[in-house]
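Re: weekly structure request thread

Next one in the queue (503 aa):
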Amino acid sequence: MALEDELSCPVCTDVFRDPVLLSCGHSFCRQCINDHWTSSSSRNCPVCRQLSPQEPVSNLCLRNTCETYLREQSTRKERDEEHECQIHGEKIELFCQTDEEVICAVCKKQEHARHKIQPLQQTVQQRKEKLKAALRPAEKTLWSLQNTAAQDAKIWNYNQSQVQQTERRIKEEFKKLHHFLKKEEESRIAALNEEEKQKRVKMEKRTEGRIRSLSDRLRELEERMKDDDITFLQNYNSIMNRAKYTLPDQEQSSEALIDVSKHLGNLKYQVWDNMKDICPYYPVILNPHTTPPDFSVSDDLTSVTSCLHRQDKSNAFPLNRSCMVLGSVGYGIGTHTWQIEMGNSRRWSLGVCFRSDGKPVTQPLSPENGFWGLRRDGCMYSFLSTLTRFTIKTNPEVVQVRLEDDYDVLGRWQRKVSFSDARSDSHFAKITGVPAGKELFPFVIPEDQSVPLRVLPVPAKITLAGKQVERNPSFQERYKGFIEICFWVFIALLVILSFRHNT
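Done, posted below.
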């Protein structure tokens, strides 16, 4: 109320309406001061009695302050009315938990006498805490999205560098192809021109020979005509026969023409066949996004080396978090073969596995964790699934891995992985019982520093519409093991029956 007193007119004691300022410094409502001066017949101040000969001026600052105060009072009154009980007109200060509604003190004693009641502020505090708890998942999601946005920016920058590097490699590879095609074009055009030159020289030599032969004969006959008369007449018949003889007409042969079919026939195929020498086909292409920081993959994605130090550029979004590099393509049904050149490396691992898609690989690398492979440690070899170690006669420099379909004794489809020395074509290890129905990715683990493991190219093959023709296994193939068991059981029964019959 102190503020309202300060904003009240001394004459009417209400809040100023159109306040004016007198020369003495006091303010009044314009209507109040005019009425006062009219009734008193003097222009003195009602407060200090000082004369004010000049007309009062509007007190704009005070008027704005009063209008603002009145608006706030009106708003507060409306709000207080809304917060009053519609039935009893009392201030609402309680909350009925039973009926889930706000009430006043009278309501508590009457309609809500036996209900569960608590102060309004306590209810508000409790429910605000619940709302904050409900918002925490959304806040976490927002935080995650913000981190994802930062990660997306990192991946975008990484992709930009990948685009630049890949574009550079594509240009280099096509530059090699352009150079090869240019050389091939020049070579074939040179061969065409060489054939034309050879045929032209041959034709010129043939024509020159005929001209020389006929010229020599004419010169000979002219000399014979210079003989004395008796000698001339004696040799006349032979001279005449010699003069009548002409060279046979030159036969037209296709050999004199350019062999166009040799130069244009299957031209593109022949160029492609020659191009295979500079365009090797690799059955396995390594996935650079699965490369650990201390591994280095070659630009053509066919070899990997274990480095002493971490690489400068690490993957922004690694698809595999283990000390291995996966192939870029997984294999499902069918037979798939690839060769890995080990060189003089004495420590390595290779095989097939399920793709982990960024999840940390649980150690050890075993079939239970989706890994089937072979490891070399010096002169000893072992499967990833066991600790049993074995040796082989000759340590292979190139290992061939073969993944193919297999069937158990009950004819159930599964896979098997075999390992052999590619140079001697000698088989030395095999893993059976590999689950089927899910793609398996080749993997390699180089363990010797600075000794690369390299995928070797294979001869390119033309397939039907670019697809491998699949063959359904025969009954004998599917149930080979079961048939063998039945055969030996049958033999055992025959032996038992024969023994009983003899006894």
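Residues 316-320, 463-471 have pLDDT under 50 and may be disordered. Residues 2-82 form a domain with the Herpes Virus-1 fold (CATH 3.30.40.10).
Next request, please.
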